[in-house]
Amino acid sequence: MTWLEGGAARRRSYHVGNLRAQLLEEARALLETGGIGQLNLRALAARAGIAPGSVYHHYASKQALLAGLAAEGFGELEAALQAAAGTQAVPIRTCALAYFGFARAQPALYALMFDPPILAEAEVDAARDRAFKVLEAAIAQAASQADRDEKTIHQIALAVWACGHGAAAMTLADPGDLDGRLMEEVISGLEALFRRR
Fold it and tell me: Structure pTM?
């Protein structure tokens, strides 16, 4: 099969209705293998086997593409937190484990999600807020927080989110922490901090 034939075969595998989702899938693969520097719309078009104009139809710029990818990442984090919050275990622990697990499984996507210029995009900010609300609701439902007012629950959720983000960044920066010692210490600290006496 020639390069041209390969491109044509790949091009036929794309369908107009789901091209946007397929572009995000290809963009994520580029992000994971080469980082943000290797991710541009022309490279994405070449990888997808489509004309660059087809990419520009869905994403006007690299920033728009990255925002779409980050928003998708926050949607997946939201789903992971929702699943964790729905268990019978301690919500702070299960949500923290889900958060750390997501960050460790997809480090490049996680880094993109918290990149300041990307976070400033409206769709990313909204997706982050939805994920945060899941954590906030889980904390509100914890038996140890039953008599907390709404403002205090919000502050606790912010503290857990910030702590989780910082600890996830530290964990990703330490390749020697394969057994998750830091993660366990942080979760134990959060549990102690919010335990009612």
Answer: 0.81
